[in-house]
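TODO from last week: model 1-deoxy-D-xylulose 5-phosphate reductoisomerase.
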Amino acid sequence: MKTKRVILLGATGSIGTSTLDVLSSFPEKFRIVGLSAHTNSDKLLQIARNHPGARTALTGILAEQREGIDFYGSTAAVQLIESLDADIVVNGIMGSAGLAPSAAAIEAGMHLALANKETIVMAGEILLPEARKKGVNVLPVDSEHAAVFQLLKSRPHSEISGIILTASGGAFRNTPLQELAGVSVQEALNHPTWNMGIKITIDSASMANKGLEVIEAERFFDMETDKVSVLIHPQSYVHSLVRTCDGILYAQVSAPDMKNPIINALSYPETLVSDFAPLDLAGKNLEFYEPDYRRYPMLKLAFEASRKSAAYPTAYNAANEIAVEGFIRERIRYLQIAEVVEAVLQHDWSDAPRDLQNVFEVDLRVRAVTEQLLDAQGV
């Protein structure tokens, strides 16, 4: 395999940190040519010093200009991509801000290792056909979708009758239901398995994150919504399962370590010899149980948004982003996140986005509606 030129977006976050660890293990296979961060300029410049010649971008709107940073502002990641020749872009940007860079990578003909699920939730029906037309591989980095991708590699779509995504259950999987109304932001950040950013950890607690993954799986793997399901699996060893038309389940099993899906995406279509957190199943207990919608109303809302399709998945995502920010800033309580999102989804979002500009317009409208609801429901 020739040396691949890599652009790493979100280099200072959890996906970025894991990607840097992976790349350092294969210096002859990969070379970083571009790096982005949101506001952490110190860490970005520190990383860049270890990768001479790499161009840099700082995407925060109020980012301070510093020597060694090439691009600034909300379009900086897109400018970075457009300025470089690269083989693959790792998109570890959080939230809807990752959509435009994903589109830019596809437009430039660069393969895309995608940890930004909002790209597919908001615009998968637009971008995936465009990627196929350009011969661009869009490779999932989320552990669940990466697992499904591996399980489906040797099987025709016609043989698959269902996909099962697993979930840890988040910080509140054992919290008595009557106590959820009073939980704090700090309690929501106490994830039992993964070390992630603030927003995604809260999404894990509410299972909004898994809801987005349901929508992503439906679009990524061309499955009907009702053929995608979720099981709580506290140990987080089984990342996903597929059921074939003969009723047999096949599972992808590995340690809960993001380095595994990252190296699989970066090296595709090859498989590199690696030894990232090998799992020994001896003595391990594996549990699975159905999620309770009383505990996880955001998951139920995601299935409803996925079934309605059109702009409802975009509305679900944008409303959740605003509501979670409201919870973090103590404008609303934890259980009000789902109440706000449900109220937003009661609006009419039945006009399917025609292009990316239309997606962004819908996203802005949803955010305005959600802010109004937040003001009405505030603590």
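Done. The radius of gyration is 20 Å.
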